[in-house]
Amino acid sequence: MGLPASQTYAFRRISLDRTLAALVILAVVIVVSAMIRIDAGPRTDDTGGGGLLILQDTDHLVAFEDLSHQSSGWSEDRLWDRPGLGRVLGPFSNDAITRTISLPENTAAITLAFDLYLLDQARLPTITVGGSTITTSASARPFGSLGIRRSRISLRLRSTAPTLDIALSGTRGGAWALDNFVVIAHRPNGA
């Protein structure tokens, strides 16, 4: 004998609800895992975005600043709440900002990474590290709908100096701002 129609329907409804819930959970897991990109090392170009940075045993995170609360150590601590960007360091135009950061002992190389936001047809500022001007192939791409362009800078440089001296100098007008500043010291194996 079969179940009455009302009991059969209730049984199927419960089964369908559980199946639907399991499918929704699976879809959320897939979407979240697709949104998280894990790199085995720092990016060396300006094409990427976000993601997690995995440090090796010989790496030391020296600075990580998203500037959402404060900035520290810059010659100009000018925080700016810009619509479409949030809080960034800037705006600057023909200004120069500098910062000196102490590096751990036995540092053999550094990774220096940050975002530059360009407004009003600004060009990329000149980047100077340790007194040497750095030339990058970075380009600025549109960011949002407010006429802002972003350039992601990621440099890996050899350095045995005890400090990192960085300067950014604006050129030919237009405003620019800095965000997501990261410095990683790389030490040789066994150091």
How many E-type strands? 13
Helix content: 10-25%
Mean pLDDT: 79
Q: Helical segment tally?
A: 1
Give the uncertain stretches in residue-range form.
37-49
Strand content bin: 35-45%
General description of the model:
- The chain is of the alpha+beta class and 191 residues long.
- Helices cover 16% and strands 41% of the residues.
- It contains one helix and 13 strands, in the order αβββββββββββββ.
- The protein has one helix at residues 5-35; strands at residues 38-39, 52-53, 59-65, 79-82, 86-92, 96-102, 109-118, 126-129, 132-134, 141-143, 148-158, 163-169, 176-186.
- The strands form three sheets. Strands 3, 4, 5, 7, 10, 11 and 13 form a seven-stranded antiparallel beta sheet that branches.
- The relative contact order is 0.23.
Short description:
By secondary structure, this protein is α+β, with helices and mostly antiparallel strands. Helix content is 16%, strand content 41%. Strands 3, 4, 5, 7, 10, 11 and 13 form a 7-stranded antiparallel sheet that branches.
Explain the layout of strands and helices.
Layout: H1 5-35, E1 38-39, E2 52-53, E3 59-65, E4 79-82, E5 86-92, E6 96-102, E7 109-118, E8 126-129, E9 132-134, E10 141-143, E11 148-158, E12 163-169, E13 176-186
